[in-house]
Amino acid sequence: MRIPILKLHDTLLISIQWELDDQTALQFQEDLLHKIHETSARGVVIDLTSIDFIDSFIAKVLGDVISMSELMGAKVMITGIQPAVAITLIELGIRLEDVLTALDLEKGLEKLQRELED
Amino acid sequence: MDSCVKIINEWDIVAARQLGRNVARDLGFGTVDQARITTAISELARNIYLYAEQGEVCIEKTESGGKIGLVIISEDQGPGISDLRKVMEDGFSTSGGLGAGLPGVKRLVDEFHIESNPGEGTLIKAIKWLR
Ligand SMILES: Nc1ncnc2c1ncn2[C@@H]1O[C@H](COP(=O)(O)OP(=O)(O)OP(=O)(O)O)[C@@H](O)[C@H]1O
Ligand SMILES: [Mg+2]
Predict the structure, then answer these.
(1) Is this structure's pTM higher than 0.90?
(2) Does the domain formed by A6-117 have CATH 3.30.428.10?
(3) Residue in B39, B90, B103 nearest the CB of A88
């Protein structure tokens, strides 16, 4: 299964709606980079509202895709991290450093727009 | 309700954590503990898949002194671990991973035991108590 990537003006929108297996996560990484390249998107919002846990593998894929997107000139915003996910990530010892985050998709889009204007 | 998932391919990692989440929910764990248990199982199952090629993850219910707990047992006959202290350090990885798996699992659960002999395999037992 592939994760759909939507385009909204100069921003790409991704809402992860089901549990990520390893293959889907890696495919998503590749698809997103191609899409950034194709569309010259300047911003990416990844919404994790439906995700109820993140392990070290998925955290690494997410962290990598954020760095890779930034290398290509697109800012990434992560939204909708649930309390349980935030707690387990920190307990696992994973810090998503310098990552832009917002409570929900709407706030994320607004914040990203402001970041892109500066 | 004892049940096990054989870990042979990546999909078995998904099956093991789904089993764990279901048992955790049935035992009455809240969403944060469900996430801790699911994450711990995912780490242990992935380690089996990555380093031992195959093995088994079992989820059991335990009772002790009026407390109910969920036990995760991860067992393989893979290459084993020669330096147990080292693999329990944050950031130590032989595979380019974050090295967060084992030390992370230890923090996510209440009890953590690891036994491993090079050439024989690895046995990990982790318990989360219901509060
Ligand atoms: N079941 C196992 N059999 C043999 N070696 C193992 C096993 N589990 C872990 N190891 C060894 O212990 C090291 C640390 O494991 P840990 O799960 O903490 O980190 P990782 O798997 O390398 O990275 P991450 O889990 O963060 O993606 C591994 O790199 C591996 O060398
Ligand atoms: Mg690991």
Answers:
(1) yes
(2) no
(3) B39
Nearest CA among A47, A43, A55, A58 for reference residue A17: A47
- How many angstroms is it from B28 CA to the middle of ligand 2? 27
Q: What is the pLDDT along chain A (118 residues), one digit of tens a residue?
A: 799 999 999 999 999 998 889 999 999 999 999 999 999 999 999 999 999 999 999 999 999 999 999 999 999 999 999 999 999 999 999 988 789 999 999 999 999 999 998 7
SS3 A38: helix
CB contact, 8 Å: B79 with chain A?
A: no
Sheet holding B3-7, edge to edge: B3-7, B55-64, B67-76, B121-129, B111-117
Structural domains of chain B sorted by starting position, each given as residue range(s) with its CATH number in brackets: 3-129 (3.30.565.10)
- SS3 of residue A28 by DSSP: helix
Residues of A with CB under 8 A from a CB of B: 19, 21-23, 52-57, 59-60, 82-85, 87-88, 91-94
| Preferred mutation among A92, A94, A96, A97 to probe B, highest tally of B CBs within 10 A | A92
